[in-house]
Design a protein that fits this description.
Number of domains: 4
Order of helices and strands: HHHHHHHHEEHHHHEEEEHEEHEEHH
Largest sheet: 5 strands, antiparallel
Strand order of the largest sheet: 6-5-4-3-7
Helix content: 55-70%
Radius of gyration: 40 Å
Structural class: alpha+beta
Shape: elongated
Number of strands: 10
Strand content: 5-15%
Length: 451
């Protein structure tokens, strides 16, 4: 509490001093000079951007220098503001005592710190991380310039609560949060680099690539957490309470999450399903896309992407069309009339299948006569494709259309159903108790309406 009272007293003294200085002409003069410096910096930066074509000037610069130059141009107004303040500060020191230009010096220091931080942190592509680094660094720099850094840290560290053998203070929370975000960003960048290197390796199968990428990311995140906790001074043994709570949570409500995580690792390890496979699970058919820690995405031909939990691939029956080979056999059924030559129909069917570009020549298509039906001869045409991810129904449609044209050109007839009344009469003749003569049929019911 003494530290809190100390910082409170410091702030009160500062406010009292500022209150006295507000009625001082030298303070008003410094505010006016700072305002003039801001106007000159803004106008100067606008004039330079209008007079100089920076895009053409920096077109041939290397990428890193081009990025740094863009950041400099974006902060050109602040840079000119700092230069004007530095000139005013030097002029005031030359003609008067240092306290008369103290506020100008503070403004120049804060603006300089902002420019330096913006140029360095601006090289970070992630906008969230950039803002986090810029605001944190400038806050620390501002407190240091105003000589409030040590009192602030002492005050934030003096307030805390003890939880499970661990003393938690606002300073500890701030330091842990900032460092954890930065280290996780760094580990994510390293993980992306390793992931690209693994995908570029032709010696590893897709499932092994994904498995190694997940394991590397998991190890990096674990290492980052341990490093951050050790850096901020947290004893890892003090986290036993939290790990026990996490264990209870897993036992009570996180079974599905853990089950999906373990199922995903098993799928990648045994290579039963890997990215690029064409599978059907339940009512879903498509190509395996991303295999995450909790789910696997299946891209369908209709533009939808199903996120199926990894556990479903372990507990349900899954048809992997490309598990050991990318060859897939399909078939279509068709009929011909009895006045058509079945041998000619078989040859025509094979010719129709071979006319489709996606159908393989080896193994060759085969057509079999499967049955002599009541009104037609029944056939099955088998054929092979190598790209089921491009669609199955579409290639069947192409085969049926080719069959229609080829059978017609060969004079093979496809049976056509007759009118509905003829079919109804034939069905009635087949019934044993149907009346054979119209006179045997019962009279039609009379209508209750007149006429």
């Amino acid at each position: 509490m003494d530290d809190v009272q100390q910082i409170g007293g410091t702030i009160a003294d500062a406010l009292h001093t500022v209150g006295r200085e507000l009625i001082s002409p030298r303070l008003l003069l410094q505010f006016a000079l700072i305002f003039i410096a801001g106007v000159l910096g803004t106008v100067g930066a606008k004039l330079l951007r209008n007079r100089i074509d920076f895009a053409a000037l920096l077109a041939r610069w290397p990428a890193f220098l081009h990025k740094f130059a863009d950041l400099t141009i974006a902060n050109l107004g602040t840079i000119l503001f700092v230069l004007v303040l530095a000139f005013e500060r030097a002029l005031m020191l030359a003609i008067t005592w240092p306290s008369a230009s103290y506020l100008i010096g503070v403004a120049a220091s804060l603006a300089t710190a902002w420019v330096v931080i913006a140029l360095v942190a601006g090289l970070i592509r992630n906008q969230f991380v950039y803002r986090l680094v810029a605001v944190s660094a400038w806050a620390i720099a501002a407190l240091s310039i105003l000589d409030l850094l040590n009192p602030t840290t002492e005050a934030l560290g003096s307030i805390g609560i003890v939880f499970g053998g661990l003393r938690i203070t606002p300073l500890l929370v701030i330091k842990t949060t900032v460092l954890l975000m930065l280290t996780l960003w760094v580990t994510n960048a390293i993980g992306d680099f390793i992931d690209r290197r693994l995908k570029a390796s032709t010696d590893l199968t897709p499932s092994i690539q994904v498995l190694m990428s997940k394991l590397v990311r998991l190890l990096l995140v674990g290492f980052a957490v341990v490093v951050v906790l050790s850096t901020v001074g947290i004893d890892l043994s003090a986290l036993a309470f939290f790990t026990g709570a996490i264990g209870v949570g897993v036992g009570l409500g996180l079974q599905k999450i853990v089950s999906n995580l373990v199922s995903g690792i098993i799928l990648l390890a045994d290579k039963s399903i890997k990215p690029g496979d064409v599978i059907s699970v339940g009512d879903h058919f498509g190509r395996v896309g991303n295999m995450g820690a909790r789910y696997t995405s299946v891209d369908t031909r209709d533009g939808r992407e199903y996120l199926i939990p990894n556990e479903d691939f372990i507990t349900q029956r899954v048809a992997n069309w490309t598990y050991s080979s990318d060859l897939v056999r399909l078939y279509v059924k068709f009929n011909t009339t009895y006045d058509s030559d079945p041998r000619k129909a078989i040859d025509a069917a094979v010719t129709a299948a071979l006319s489709i570009e996606r159908i393989l020549k080896k193994p060759a298509p085969q057509c079999m006569l499967t049955a002599f039906g009541a009104t037609s001869i029944e056939y099955e045409l088998w054929f092979w494709i190598r790209d089921p991810a491009a669609g199955v129904a579409n290639v069947k449609s192409e085969v049926l259309l080719a069959l229609w044209d080829t059978l017609a050109s060969e004079g093979v007839n496809i049976p056509k159903p007759g009118p509905a009344r003829v079919i109804y009469e034939l069905a009635r003749e087949d019934e044993p108790d149907a009346p054979k003569d119209q006179s045997d049929a019962p009279p039609p019911p009379r209508s209750p309406f007149p006429g």
